[in-house]
Amino acid sequence: xxxxxxxxxxxxxxxxxxxxSVGLGIEYSRAEANTLYFVDEDxxxxxxxxxxxxxxxxxFGHHHPDITAHAKAALDQQIPVYVPLSRQSHANDIAAxxxxxxxxxxxxxxGDYAAIFANSGAEAVEICVKHAELERxxxxxxxxxxxxxxxxxxxxxxxxxxxxxxxxxxxxxxxxGGETERLEQLLAxxxxxxxxxxxxxxVHLALENAFHGKLVAxxxxxxNPHWRLPFTSxxxxxxxxxxxxxxxxxxxxxxxxxxxxxxxxxxGVVTVVERDFPVIGAFFVxxxxxxxxxxxxxxxxxxxxxxxxxxxxxxxxxDEIHSGxxxxxxxxxxxxxxxxxxxxxxxxxxxxxxxKNAVALFHRDRFRPEFEVMHSSxxxxxxxxxxxxxxxxxxxxxxxxxxxxxxxxxxxRLKEVLTTxxxxxxxxVDAVHGIGLMLALEFKDQTRAASEPLREKAASGMLGYCVxxxxxxxxxxxxxxxxxxxxxxxxxxxxxLTDADIARTENALRDVCTILRAQDGDRLTx
Length: 526
Ligand code: F0G
Prior knowledge:
Layout: H1 13-21, E1 30-32, E2 35-39, E3 45-50, H2 53-56, H3 65-76, H4 89-105, E4 113-118, H5 121-159, E5 164-165, H6 179-199, E6 203-207, H7 225-228, E7 237-241, H8 249-255, E8 259-266, E9 269-276, E10 280-285, E11 288-289, E12 295-296, H9 299-312, E13 316-319, E14 343-346, E15 358-363, H10 371-374, H11 383-424, E16 429-435, E17 438-443, H12 452-459, H13 463-475, E18 477-478, E19 480-482, E20 488-491, H14 499-518
Helix pairs in contact: 3-11, 4-11, 5-6, 11-14, 13-14
The structure holds ligand F0G.
Ligand F0G is lined by residues 55-56, 120-122, 125, 211-213, 286, 290-291, 319, 321-322, 347.
């Protein structure tokens, strides 16, 4: 929207100009279920089918009447909303439901996870980064204690003439001085090298094309270079691994391997040995990679990721911010591929479309109780969003999980139609990805298109936005591009998607495919 006549624009100046340029600069005035409304020049309310649904945060659509009624009642009852540092049993009520679901859905899971609440998805991810670092620091402290004890034993053995200091491949020792001097020289140099390593931050593991948020630490787990690279100096680095090459994961992790130096007295000789250093902080995984164009993890990848974490000893953090809360036909998308996490994150739909809420869950075996006070926020765990979360969970679990079955059925129906479009237009559509109501249609690359405007839009990464603009302008359907090249269109509506909505969607996509096939670049530009 433009500013009031003559007024200065202080917010979204660049963003709004850009939205206008691709035909997405519409201000919506009302929202209900899967429909957004705007008012046109004639004062008429125009409905728009919303396939974006708050980036997948509306499993029950915009303003579900039961959620709205629940919210109104909560406000009428004057429930305490912000009362930090008091007993807030709603936090435990939510965690109890989540643990029961984990117990039901996750194979080998015992459903014993401690909950820490947050305000956004990215904050929940950062909470996990912090907790994983606490765990890592505890492991390092144990290791350095042992190394300190071994150094002391070596000192005593050398002082008593029971041991001599051997040459070693790590640290070259001077020829001068006695055994005690040589040992002190060795310990000082080993200590310096160890201290350098210990002072460094962890390396995190994530999958290529991952999206885990845009805060200081979480943006380093989000591969998109435009968002990540300007801020690499602010946080720990990430090694991105290929989800489609699980067999290569162990080797990639092996490359990161590094050791602390320790000394042992063996048969009257002080020798230097390497001790594996816990350099890896955690492995972050989306069971369905949303920003990567709705790519579900394979079972083989899930198995290998679990094996890597077990071998390294780092927590496996399953980011269900996008895929969780029932969207894929199960509460946890990871349950489809048997992925068991040490930590979980949830956000988006837990807010019921009207509140901001997020939670990180930590397996009890790993949870450090002091963390309950080490991370907090004025707004987190508030009574209002907690009350909404409990309502959403109740709605999801009602009728023996009817909502999950509907999500799966509606998703299958939509996917079927997308697949038919893909097979009718193999020249312009690459593939359909996703599961449940987390789907994407991937168009073929158009950077070598015959049409110049198409080529140009594709080269600048704008083609997907122009497709979204056209679908909005001509079909009154809101979609957005997704995927590293922006070549896919994302579909993540609520469970109330109707057959008529699906038919309209098919019609719009066939139109887009026909335009691409005909290389009618002019029609794609507003
Ligand atoms: N993790 C995942 C898997 C996400 O999809 C997102 C957000 C976040 C973390 C960050 O959550 O926005 O509440 O801070 N995904 C949005 C998307 C932006 O495009 O689907 P946030």
